[in-house]
Design brief:
Layout: H1 3-29, H2 35-47, H3 50-64
Helix pairs in contact: 1-2, 1-3
Length: 71
């Protein structure tokens, strides 16, 4: 995979993360989900920059599977 393809994947992961966060917040505001149901998820989203979380996870998983990411 090229560096550009990796960047595209990371961008898509970030977009997906934002949609999930918006959905969780909408469910909470409609009282369909209690704060305890998504507390850990929301805390993660509020304390970390989404791109940093996904880049770290992606790099860790890639390393575990022996995938080299272009610099």
């Amino acid at each position: 995979m090229t560096k550009q393809e990796h960047e595209l994947m990371m961008t898509l992961f970030g977009v997906q993360f934002h949609y999930l966060l918006a959905m969780a917040e909408a469910l909470q505001s409609a009282d369909l989900m209690l704060p305890d149901d998504v507390g850990a998820f929301l805390e993660l989203a509020k304390t970390h920059k989404p791109a940093e979380v996904f880049v770290k996870t992606y790099h860790e998983l890639a390393s575990q599977f022996g995938v080299e990411i272009p610099a």
